[in-house]
Design brief:
By secondary structure, the chain is mainly beta. It is about 15% helix and about 45% strand. The protein is built from three helices and 19 strands. The protein has helices at about 30, 195-205, 210-240; strands spanning about 1-5, 10, 15-20, 25, 25-30, 35-40, 45-50, 55-60, 65-75, 80-85, 90-100, 105-110, 115-125, 135-140, 145-150, 155, 160-170, 250-260, 265-274. The strands form four sheets. Strands 2, 6, 7, 9, 10, 11, 13, 15 and 17 form a nine-stranded mixed sheet that branches. The chain has a five-stranded mixed sheet with strand order 12-19-18-14-16, with no helix packed on it. The protein has a three-stranded antiparallel sheet with strand order 1-3-8, with no helix packed on it.
Length: about 270
């Protein structure tokens, strides 16, 4: 008995093939009994049957239980040939789990240009070690963000592995994202220099004033400009709910996925950009 896939992950498929070779009085078993039927078993559980064709019987099936399986093929016999069973083939079926690390939070809040980090644990299930390599991916990040995993994967044959996902948010979150509010000006937090507009207008009219009046107006304009800019900057930084420089905070649902063969496991984290 042979299996075309050893090892394999949960939900994967394999094909079992049992061969027969025997002769009695110069007549081959295959030629004298073309309708032989083999039964394939996982321990004592019947997986299915296959009919002998050209000296071999096969069965394709899907593996639905993680762990180690002892697979055999049996022939019950007939009036000419006695029954027999194959030696057991050990099939290892792997599964995995993915969870947030015990010392990590599922939420993070950062300013544009900063980096958020999350910790996870991926572990084999049903077996002691991963039967195939495990890779990590993530979706749902801010536009322009850079995501890295450390380590980038877990090798086959290893046990439970802790890994970190880092999300580097761009210094300027793209204003073109649907439903996202564009960044306000870093000068005032309310758009492009709106807090200085009165002072700018007064400066534009300054040449129209007499020399004596300019002497009194210039200090006043300096005070107005300083007050306006300070108020705009203090107003946006003092109100965390308004976000960085007046930008509306945006929360992203990030889906982290671990994949090994046919198995995928996912978990969610959230990232808020101020």
């Amino acid at each position: 008995l042979t299996s075309c896939s050893i090892p394999v992950t949960l939900g994967g498929s394999t094909t079992l093939t049992s061969t027969a070779a025997s002769a009695v009085a110069g007549v081959s078993a295959v030629g004298s009994a073309p309708t032989w039927t083999f039964t394939f078993l996982d321990g004592s559980t019947v997986l299915g049957t296959g009919t002998l064709t050209n000296g071999a019987a096969s069965l394709s099936y899907t593996l639905t239980t993680a762990g180690t399986h002892a697979l055999t093929a049996t022939y019950s016999g007939n009036t000419v040939y006695s029954g027999s069973s194959s030696s057991a083939v050990t099939e290892t079926v792997g599964d995995l789990t993915l969870s947030l690390a015990s010392n990590s939070s599922a939420t993070a809040t950062v300013l544009p240009g900063a980096t958020a980090a999350y910790g996870f644990t991926v572990a084999p299930a049903g077996v002691n070690n991963f039967v195939l390599p495990v890779t990590f991916t993530a979706t749902g990040m801010p536009k322009g963000a850079t995501m890295t995993f450390s380590p980038a994967s877990a090798a086959a044959g290893t046990a439970a592995t802790n890994f970190t996902m880092s999300v580097a948010v761009p210094a300027v979150v793209a204003a073109a994202e649907p439903g996202k509010q564009p960044l306000a000006s870093p000068t005032t937090g309310r758009g492009a220099n709106t807090g200085l507009a009165p002072a700018v207008l007064a400066l534009a009219l300054l040449p129209l004033l007499s020399r004596r009046r300019r002497k009194f107006v210039l200090p006043l304009l300096s005070v107005i400009a300083l007050t306006a800019s300070t108020f705009g900057l203090t107003g946006c930084l003092g109100n965390v709910s308004s976000g960085y420089f007046g930008q509306t905070p945006t929360t992203y649902a990030i889906v982290v996925t671990a994949t090994s063969g046919t198995v995928t496991r996912s978990t969610n984290v959230t990232l808020t950009v101020q």
